[in-house]
Amino acid sequence: MVLRAVTVKAFVVLAACLLAGPVSVVHAKSCGSFRAQGHQIKVTAKMVSCAKARKVIKEFWLAPEKYKRYVGIGGPRTTYLKRYPGWSCGSGAGAGGCRKSKARADYIAI
Description:
- It is built from 2 helices and 7 strands; from the N terminus they run αββαβββββ.
- By secondary structure, it is of the alpha+beta class.
- It has one domain (about 30-110).
- A 7-stranded antiparallel beta sheet has the order 1-2-7-6-5-4-3, with helices on one face.
- A hairpin with a 2-residue loop joins strand 6 (about 95-100) and strand 7.
């Protein structure tokens, strides 16, 4: 009876781990900062080079409007970067980021 209870508990723990999904082992790396619109912008990257992450975030912050395409009205709005095809960006509450597939470039505005 005790063996059966241990087996059931082990199965429940295993099932919970499998349902939780894969754990990401890739942590964001710090990629420096730049100044824009009176803020210090700190950039991080995940699954993309720091150079590319900085370029994409700078494009999001500093590019002329003609190089951006906006989708959404009012609430959350997505910005697509025309000079970086496939990258979509968003922001809110002093932070934001851009992504392309699994690649992420994030920022915090201080």
